[in-house]
Design goal:
The complex is a heterodimer of chains A (787) and B (178).
Chain A: E1 11-19, E2 24-32, H1 56-65, E3 67-70, E4 76-77, E5 85-86, H2 99-133, H3 151-157, H4 167-183, H5 193-222, E6 233-236, E7 247-251, H6 256-267, E8 275-279, H7 280-289, E9 294-297, H8 302-307, E10 313-316, H9 325-331, E11 336-338, H10 355-363, E12 369-371, H11 375-393, H12 402-409, H13 417-421, H14 428-436, H15 441-446, H16 455-459, H17 466-473, H18 475-479, E13 483-486, H19 494-506, E14 512-515, H20 526-537, E15 541-545, H21 546-553, H22 563-566, E16 576-580, H23 586-599, H24 608-618, E17 621-625, H25 631-642, E18 647-649, E19 658-661, E20 671-674, E21 680-682, E22 689-693, H26 697-707, H27 715-733, H28 755-764, E23 775-776
Helix pairs in contact in A: 1-5, 2-4, 2-5, 2-25, 4-5, 5-25, 6-11, 10-11, 12-14, 19-23, 20-21, 23-24, 26-27
Chain B: E1 18-19, H1 24-32, E2 36-40, H2 43-46, E3 48-49, E4 52-53, H3 54-65, E5 69-71, H4 76-81, E6 87-89, H5 92-99, E7 115-119, H6 123-136, E8 140-143, E9 154-155, H7 161-175
Helix pairs in contact in B: 1-7, 5-6
Classes of the chains: A alpha/beta (787), B alpha/beta (178).
Chain lengths: 787, 178
């Protein structure tokens, strides 16, 4: 199979014997460029550093089962000056592209953006950390508990990185592949939608690599929790912030500027005098660095937190940051420090200026912000500004009083432009009308479902500050937001994998469900918390990260405890495991890979296809991105698809423009090889779909339980999984599922308490008994050929 | 109200739904169809329709017009609760996928449907589903919701609740003469 030229990067000279006038040299080996200490005894697999097409055959096998169903946003392509081109139905554009191919091209573009974003993040992280800690800094992400430190890197690249410097070659490979993938999206390149989809899978795999590089580097160098199921509980919520102190707000995903702030505070003995608060994944990683830092909430809290006037200085790094942050911060007189070349906000580069000069300009209002591309300097400047400016700012707000809301509300003409702009189609006009009478109750009711986008304000012809109205009306709720979340623990320990590997693969732990991604929820974040609790109570392993992990913390039980205070953080049945920020998603994919390696003893090294085949057929893992919004989320999902892990998104996820759907009624799609006998065996649609948008929480719960079924389930395991699927279906749908016959392979699969009921259905469906094979999609995995 | 997308920024492209200016259009489409199907999303359970819910109306419509029903998400139980069990259950994306397959013989194995009536899905999800149908199927699609969906073959314009109720009630009365 084809491998990337990068795997052969560097010059390697081997001389058996060299005779000169003065000496004879034997067995001389010289390497130029990157050198690896190759003490890894594991045999190298077929696809180290795979090229764009190296895993195409595997991708096509999956895509044969899960054919793309495209859901275009609009009828046209507008990517080149030939266009716009009308691609309606089977029309082709000026370049010859049709709608299916165009949609898959857009999906690839989204995934390239996502992968490039994580790669840029990882690159920045490695450059900074190698400069600070040296290229030889060891990758220790769990001490003796972690021997397989970088499962994705081992699997994809076929190398075993030991130091930060070893990760550079991985980054080179990532950048090389993203360049090729992005090139494929140019006008007049790929003409097959299925090959575009294969490239989407490649982009996803590359994205997972980038995630892993970024997170293992920061865990190793910055002292984050190291695969610690008892990682500390940290504070989350608006009400947790002491706004009498100077408050620094950090936003984004790259933790380095926040570490600069925390280090400076520590150095100066100011840790308890300044509040360091964060939003989005930077907040996760800030608490992994220092548990005293506080998380405000997910991305949807950016506007409301700035407008509250609580932050005294705003520090931006990269990704998922509102583009209007500078304008919003100006309204509350809070200076802005930008720290990433990805997000300069038009501010002057002050990286080489003295801190005192920058501080003076920002505190005195001479400048509104500064670009500082040095995390340590940014930390010092942000801290000093916060301390100096706090008395001057007096926590200036941009939130109206109830009286002002009443007055403003009179301008509302009930034009409905706000509701037509609102992603939730919330009943804003009715709430505004009631506010006119002095009753803010309906406005407060909107708070729970509001995703904080501010589109309502942009749409309002009278320029009403509708989002601020909602925040003011819900002020009492906001102030009571005091929660606990377990800091991101990082990787899953090898011993945890050993403990659960067997019950997962046999099906006795009914599934591993990962709740990840953004907060573009269809109703409210409570749905995420409810789903996580449901599966934890059912003894699934629940894993989480990013904004979903934060959201899940924001709902308490009757005793005032969040999910993280109720459920253990161990990777075990009934655990709720917060791995950390977006880049920590690598540990979720990594856990699935480690099951194949540690439990099943499959070789990882450059052996992608075999491991994906193992995971697909045996590991009942499902991802749920209930509020997925970003291109990064698309890339993360596509990395899961190539590993054979299904992903469920909420209804907004239908805007990703295509699903990967199986057809349970197409029997011919669901045959595998029995690796023991080479027989082709029908195993039913398990899992039925690879990418799927659910309309409601109830549908997602039922579908996730179903998607956890795998061909390898033992009869006991299948009975357990069927019990959960049927039980959830009966409770939430009020009926028996109509496809049970597809999942019962033999009588022993039937849950004992449902035997009579199910036997009756099987009889009606003319069900025939099947068998449980040693499943694989790969002919080369067959151990015994038929004569 | 005007025939423009309810969510302002959702601009469809050159091919837009024909506007149902009077309910008789839908009646004619249903009567003309050989194999119609009604796809009902979960919002039909929540959506007020006069003194009742939309789902109650839809049951009457399905009975009167003898249109088979497929309930998406968890909606099937609500039909059963109301004593209407002639309803298939299938996720919204799944039924959309099958309706695009010319080989699919339908829930009764009697052949492909030729008219799909959609209602009760979230607006933005209906948008992507109808777009998928427009580009990749040969079926005619009608949305019975009160907001304009340009990717359908036929859609009501954006209507007030009162006008929408009136239109659907006329539709039901007229279809009774089928």
């Amino acid at each position: 199979m084809a491998c990337s030229p990068l795997s052969r990067k560097g010059i390697h000279v081997k001389v058996k014997e060299l005779k000169t006038d003065v000496a004879v040299i034997k067995d001389l080996e010289l390497s130029f460029g990157r050198v690896f200490e190759e003490t890894w005894a594991e045999p190298i697999g077929p696809t180290p550093f795979p090229s764009v097409t190296a895993l195409r055959e595997w991708d096509h096998k999956l895509l044969q089962r899960y054919k793309p169903m495209y859901m275009p946003f609009c009828d046209v392509c507008c990517l080149c000056t030939f266009g716009k081109c009308d691609l309606t139905k089977d029309k082709r554009g000026a370049c010859g592209i049709n709608m299916a191919t165009q949609q898959s091209r857009i999906v690839l573009l989204a995934c390239c953006i996502g992968a490039a974003t994580h790669a840029g993040h990882a690159k920045h992280m490695i450059e900074h950390l190698t400069e600070k800690f040296g290229r030889r800094h060891p990758i220790d992400i769990g001490g003796l508990n972690i021997e397989v430190e970088a499962p994705i890197t081992r699997l994809v690249c076929g190398i075993r990185p030991k130091t930060l410097g070893d990760l550079e070659v991985v980054l080179d490979y990532i950048q090389d592949q993203i360049t090729h993938l992005l090139a494929a999206t140019h006008t007049g390149q790929e003409g097959s939608n299925i090959d575009f989809e294969s490239k989407v899978f490649h982009a996803g795999m590359i994205d997972h690599l980038a995630l892993e590089v970024a997170d293992i580097a920061q865990i190793a160098a910055l002292g984050f929790p190291k695969a610690d199921p008892k990682a500390p509980l940290v504070n989350l919520g608006f009400g947790m912030i002491d706004n009498k102190k100077p408050v620094i707000m950090v936003v984004g995903h790259n933790v380095l500027p926040a570490t600069g702030i925390i280090d400076y505070l520590k150095k100066k003995g100011l840790t308890d005098q300044v509040e360091v608060t964060g939003l989005c994944c930077t907040a996760h990683d800030t608490t992994r660095y220092n548990p005293k830092a506080k998380i405000v909430g997910p991305i949807s809290y950016q506007l409301r937190f700035i407008r509250s006037g609580v932050p005294d200085v705003v520090v931006l790094d990269e990704q998922c940051i509102r583009a209007d942050t500078l304008e919003e911060a100006e309204k509350i007189k809070a200076p802005v420090i930008v720290t990433s070349d990805k997000n300069c906000q038009g501010l002057p580069d002050r990286t080489n200026d003295s801190p005192d000069a920058i501080i003076a300009d920002l505190v005195n209002g001479k400048a509104q912000g500064a670009l500082i591309l040095d995390p340590e300097k940014a930390g010092e400047v942000a801290t000093k500004i916060a301390i100096e400016i706090t008395p001057k700012r007096r926590k200036s707000k941009n939130i109206p009083s109830p009286k002002e809301i009443m007055e403003e509300a009179k301008k509302c003409k009930l034009c409905n432009d706000c509701v037509r702009a609102c992603p939730q189609m919330s009943p804003i006009p009715e709430a505004i009308k009631e506010a006119e009478e002095g009753n803010l109750r309906l406005l407060a009711d909107l708070y729970e479902t509001c995703i904080g986008c501010g589109r309502c304000e942009e749409a309002c012809p009278n320029h009403l500050a509708i989002h601020s109205f909602i925040v003011k009306a819900a002020e009492h709720i906001l102030k009571e937001e005091t929660f606990k979340i377990q800091a991101g623990r990082g990787a899953i320990q090898d011993v945890e994998i050993r403990n659960v590997g067997s019950p997962i693969v046999l099906g006795e732990i009914p599934g591993v469900v990962a709740f990840v991604g953004c907060p573009n929820y269809p109703h409210s974040g409570k749905e995420v918390a409810d789903m996580m609790q449901e599966f934890a109570n059912r003894r699934f392993i629940v894993v989480t990260s990013g904004c979903s992990a934060m959201t899940a913390a924001m709902y308490k039980n009757e005793e005032g405890k969040s999910l993280y205070e109720i459920y253990p953080g161990d990777f075990e049945a009934g655990g709720i495991v917060n791995v950390g920020s977006c880049v920590a998603n690598s540990h979720i994919a990594g856990a699935a890979i480690k099951i194949a390696n540690i439990f099943a003893k499959r070789s990882l090294r450059g052996n992608y296809e075999e491991i994906a085949d193992y995971i697909y057929n045996r590991v009942g893992a499902v991802g749920v991105a209930w509020g997925a919004m970003s291109q990064k989320a698309a890339a993360i999902a596509s990395g899961c698809w190539r590993l054979g892990i299904p992903v469920v998104v909420g209804p907004q996820g239908s805007k990703y423009r295509r699903m990967l759907l199986g057809r349970g009624d197409h029997e011919e799609d669901w045959y595998v090889y029995d690796a023991r006998t080479a027989d082709r065996v029908y195993v039913g649609p398990a899992p039925e779909h690879l990418f799927y948008a659910a309309e409601t929480k109830e549908e997602a719960l039922v579908m996730v339980a179903k998607l956890c079924m795998r061909p390898n389930d033992t009869t006991k395991g299948r009975a357990i999984k069927l019990t959960h699927y049927i039980d959830l279906h009966k409770r939430l749908y009020g009926t028996m599922p109509d496809d049970i016959h597809l999942y019962v392979r033999n009588i022993m699969d039937i849950p004992i308490t449902m035997k009579d009921e199910i036997m009756k259905i099987l009889k009606e469906k003319s069900w025939k008994e099947g068998r449980v094979p040693d499943p694989t999609l790969l002919p080369r995995m067959i151990r015994k050929r038929k004569e | 109200m005007a025939a423009e997308p309810w969510q302002t920024a959702e601009i469809p492209g050159p091919t837009k739904a024909l506007v149902i200016t009077k309910p008789e259009v839908v009646v004619a489409m249903i009567k003309k169809a050989k194999r119609p199907i009604l796809i009902v999303g979960h919002e039909a359970v929540e959506s007020d329709f006069g003194e009742e819910k939309l789902i109650d109306y839809l049951i009457r419509l399905a009975k009167t017009a003898k249109i088979p029903v497929v309930a998406t998400a968890h909606t099937v139980g609500e039909f059963v609760k109301r004593g209407y069990s002639h309803v298939a259950e299938m996720p919204a994306v799944d039924i959309t996928n099958r309706l695009q397959d010319v080989e699919w013989k339908g829930f009764d194995s009697k052949g492909q449907y030729d008219l799909a009536l959609f209602t009760g899905l979230p607006y933005y999800m209906m948008w992507t589903i109808l777009s998928s149908m427009k580009h990749f199927s040969n079926l005619k699609t009608i949305t019975l919701d009160r907001f304009y969906q340009p990717h359908a073959t036929w859609s009501f314009p954006n209507l007030s609740k009162k006008d929408w109720n009136e239109n659907l009630n006329i539709l039901l009365n007229k279809i009774g003469g089928k």
